[in-house]
Each structure stands twice: as structure tokens, then as C-alpha cells.
Specification:
Layout: E1 5-9, H1 13-25, E2 29-33, H2 36-45, E3 50-54, H3 62-72, E4 78-82, H4 88-95, E5 100-103, H5 108-118
Parallel strand pairs: 1-2, 1-3, 3-4, 4-5
Helix pairs in contact: 2-3
Length: 120
């Protein structure tokens, strides 16, 4: 076990559950939040090593969620996911303190590399 605790925040239930399973097959521990509000509450209540956060969600979007997560723990690494072909919001998120961003569809090996880099 890598002893790395990952919080996955994404409103696409099947995607986020599958991603969690794929990470666990690689010995990473993960928890799921299906919206920004739930993710923020989880960050307040638990300790995570890294957050994987979707940018496009109904309600509290990814950038607003990122802002609140960084207010709770400015050192918590956040990797943003965007599935809409736009690097603009990903770049804006990095300006707001995100470690990096990845485009959907996601290559799990690229995500693992980003997680490892973020935790160094």
C-alpha cells in the first residue's frame, strides 16, 4: 500500500467510481465526493494527501471548490480534470494554486505520474 489518501471530486458518478477502483488496483487509497460541497466538507473533516478535482460540475464548480480547499489547506496538492477540451480553466486553476491539470479522457498512467510529482 502506498499509504497515499486521495480525494476524488467529480459529479460523474460512474467515472469517479471507476477511477477510484483503478487507483486502488495500484495500491492507492481513495474516497469519493460527487460534488464540490461534499468534497470541501471531507477536506475539513479528514486528512488527504492529494485531491483530484473536476472543473465542470453543477452547483459549486471546480474553480470555486479549489478556492475553498486552498483556504482550508494551502499546501494540499490539487490536480484538476477538465473534459471540455479547454486548457483555459486548467491554467486559471494553476494560477489559483492547483498543482496541474489533465484532460479527460484520462490516461491513468499520466494521472499516477502527476500524483507522484505532486507529492515529492
Amino acid at each position: 500500500m502506498n499509504n497515499i489518501n486521495i480525494l476524488l471530486i467529480d459529479d460523474e458518478k460512474e467515472f469517479i467510481e471507476t477511477l477510484g477502483e483503478r487507483l486502488e488496483l495500484r495500491q492507492y487509497s481513495s474516497k469519493i465526493a460527487e460534488n464540490g460541497e461534499t468534497g470541501i466538507n471531507m477536506v475539513k473533516e479528514e486528512s488527504f494527501d492529494i485531491v483530484i478535482l473536476d472543473l465542470m460540475m453543477p452547483g459549486l464548480n471546480g474553480l470555486d471548490t479549489l478556492k475553498q480547499i486552498k483556504a482550508i489547506d494551502k499546501n494540499l496538492p490539487v490536480i484538476l480534470l477538465t473534459g471540455h477540451g479547454s486548457t483555459k480553466d486548467g491554467t486559471k486553476g494553476m494560477d489559483m494554486g492547483a498543482f496541474d491539470f489533465l484532460m479527460k479522457p484520462l490516461d491513468i498512467n499520466d494521472l499516477i505520474k502527476k500524483i507522484e510529482l505532486a507529492l515529492k
